[in-house]
User: Fold these one by one.
Assistant:
Number 1:
Amino acid sequence: MVDLLPLYLSLKLAAVSTAVLMVVAAPISYALVFHRIPGKSFLEALINLPIVLPPTVLGFYLLVALGPRGSFGRAWESVFGSPLLFTFTGIVVASLVYSLPFAVAPMKTAFCRIDRRLVENAQILGLNPMAIFFRVILPNSLAGVAASAILVFLHTIGEFGVILMVGGSIPGKTKVASIAIFEAVEALRYSDAWLMSLALVPVCYVFLLLVNRLTPEAQHGT
């Protein structure tokens, strides 16, 4: 019988990462689109760096930063009394860094489509930036925000190299579905790998269909 715990951990990791990144990416995207930020191009390049970096390179830097000798890892351990490496929390942090550009890009696109006159009118009416964000920006870009959440969810489910570097393969803690499939193939347990992969395919396919329905370009092409 196939162990479904790695699949559960993948879904849990994807759900937690998506929830956190929606909160983090929304104000970042809002600031990038509607505010003048010194060095904006450098900031955007930094946010998008995980897209072009090999996962093992990013995983190595995160391994150093989150480890007991890294500044972030030391600070975390001094506050919470437990290490970050090889824990579920650790792979969540790694996933947040790795998936951030996939959260920001769709939101930026959605925010850029908003008529600037709506924002200008809200400013004339005396709304502060936070009120504009919640009363004007978000209601007019829900499809883009939903597409962002779906892309982050799918990208997190497929993560492998970064998660393996930071979390290892601890059953019940950090052994997600992608790692379980790799180890099954390595051990020549092809039936287990087949069944685990088969469980992921329909989930990813349904979510991709949702992205296509939410993306205006895809709708125009149908």
Number 2:
Amino acid sequence: MKTKRAFILVYVFNVICYQMIAQTSFTSGLLPKIVVSNKLSDNIKLINSIESRQQLWEHQPDNDLSYDYLLTDFTNILSFKLSADKVFNIGYLLRIEEDELIHRSIFQHSIAQQLENLRVAHRFVTDQTFSRKESPEFRLRYRFTVELPFNGYRVDSGEFYIKINNEYLGSYQGSNADLEIRIIPFIGYAVNPKSKLEIGPDYRLSQLLESGTKNRLWLSFNYYYAMDWLKSIKNEN
């Protein structure tokens, strides 16, 4: 099993390195994110997140370091647990980019499956983005996720784990269509039953339907914290 894990990591990073070498220009920077979920009932959760995108390099990797704040996303999602392995989410994203406010509606359906010490998940998303300066953008997304602990069959407190996301995103705006591929391998650490940390590269290859492709490589830092409003109310009573 350790050999399999090493092979997966080597393969993912080889793909990232190959794409970076094959393309002469790319954008890279930081992508920190905080996610706080609150359990409202046995089957309903409210998930709030804030994510900031900050650029460090553009065009050539040997350019001087140049910091540039790009945008911040505020996302609110209402999550409904349909069964033990299926979840439906509906949400809203507010993006602050320079002096503009961008609005996005989100609909998600997720399916997860536990296979011995391997957790596999599929996420299907459709979202619609609206702003004053551009035509509405409509996107369809599919994400495949594999998560496995370094030790044992489950991720317990104080343990590390590997999570690899592979996402395909099709978009349509005005008369233009685009296809984007994302590869996001994470090293995660379960701090305790309520919180966990993840860090890893977020590589995005887009404009695949055009003559020139666009490469973006972000270093992602994710912090997750889970609250239980329902349990707190029961304890107070």
Number 3:
Amino acid sequence: MKELRPHDRERLIHFLRGNATTNIFLLSVLDRSESNHSQLAAEGQFFVPDGADELRAVVYVTRGGLCVPFSPDPADLRLLARSLRTAVRPRLLVGPRAETDVLWDELQFRASARLYRRHRLYRLLPGELSVEGHPDVRLATARDLDKATHFAARMQSEELGLDPRQVDQTRFRRRIARLIANEQFYILPQGETHAFQASASAQCVEGAQVEAVFVPPALRGRGWGRRGLAGMCKVLLQRFPMVTLHVNEENHPAVRVYERLGFVPDAAFRLISL
């Protein structure tokens, strides 16, 4: 296998744009590090099969153990995945379902998966939003950091079964603070709490990806999530040509909310957590 370098940026972008809807996250990684001439991605590495004349498969690997694959033909990913066996210690695999399943199979990781889920990527284009957003949705500010961090940790605990504050509280808080400072974190205040919050940490020319959508349990079923996300998407679609998100296919209430807003199902995704 071979690690891509800064001089490979343009051809990697061209390759990923072959399916921009699926690759908003990976394209945003390259967008964030565009001004860095010493490395292709500040938080991880892009690997491709060694000796390939053209890009046919890529895996993005972060120092924290996130692995994200992409290949138009999943069979082209198999050799690369085998080469990664001794090079990575995966904690979370997320990506198109066929590619992620090949990666998981070839890594031959001995531990069983803690979570093995079918996700679905959804997309929303300008003019497709069918719900009126709540007018009070706004970008979070520094004064919202405590509540935003608390609810973001609760969301991750519910979704992945692991409270990130127990792993590294300081690092998690800094991540939320960075999202707020970069104007990528949205909230809907309601009294002393947040009736809705979510982030759009993946942003690039091709679009924005929403993640970590959360409504406190006591406020669920009242439309806060629907109108909160609609308000957030209305703002994002004024800046980006597309909004995407991916959701656990077994989370039927969330699926109903997204489809009611106008999101259209797209690629099959997989999430595997160790």
